[in-house]
Amino acid sequence: MSDNNDFLRTGETTFRLRADVLALMLKGAGYAALFCFGVGFLLWAIYAIGLLLPPESKEADDPTPFSYHLSAPETYRVG
Questions:
Q1: Helices and strands (DSSP H and E) totals, the chain
Q2: Residue burial 1-15, b: 16+ Cβ < 10 Å; e: rest
Q3: What is the H or E stretch that residue 56 is in?
Q4: Contact present, 23 and 17 (Cβ < 8 Å)
Q5: Is the distance from CB of 19 to CB of 8 less than 8 angstroms?
Q6: How far is Cα 36 from Cα 76, in angstroms, rounded to an integer?
Q7: CA gyration radius for the chain?
Q8: How far is CA 14 from CA 17, 19, 20, 27, 28, in A?
Q9: What DSSP line would sit under 22-46, residue for residue?
Q10: Separation CA 31–CA 37 (nearest Å)
Q11: What are the distances in angstroms from CA 54 to CA 40, 57, 60?
Q12: DSSP letter assigned to residue 62
């Protein structure tokens, strides 16, 4: 058997390097696409669950009406 592991059938080292880099970039792009589709599917699933809720749940009062009223902390000057 041959010990030649050059699967691209070229002896040029710069071509092999460029091909390896391209393969790694495409692999990373595939992972990024899977991640983006996963996030999109998760957002769609939350939206779909929201559509299944009755309309009364969307018209209910806020359970924590004063949670958005944040007061600025008072600062004191010593001296």
A1: 2, 0
A2: eeeeeeeeeeeeeee
A3: helix 55-59
A4: no
A5: yes
A6: 48
A7: 29
A8: 5, 9, 10, 20, 21
A9: HHHHHHHHHHHHHHHHHHHHHHHHH
A10: 10
A11: 24, 6, 11
A12: P
Q: 59 φ, ψ to 5°? A: -100, 0
pTM for the predicted model, two decimal places: 0.57
How far is 20 from 26, CA to CA, in rounded Å?
10
Tokens of 42: 């998760």
pLDDT per residue as tens digits for the range 3-24: 666 666 666 667 878 888 999 9
| Length of the chain counted residue by residue | 79
Taking a C-beta distance cutoff of 8 angstroms, is the pair 8, 15 a contact?
Answer: yes
Q: What is the pLDDT of residues 19-49, one digit of tens each?
A: 889 999 999 999 999 999 999 999 999 999 9
Euclidean distance between CA atoms 63 and 32, whole angstroms = 38
Return the pLDDT at 5. Answer: 65
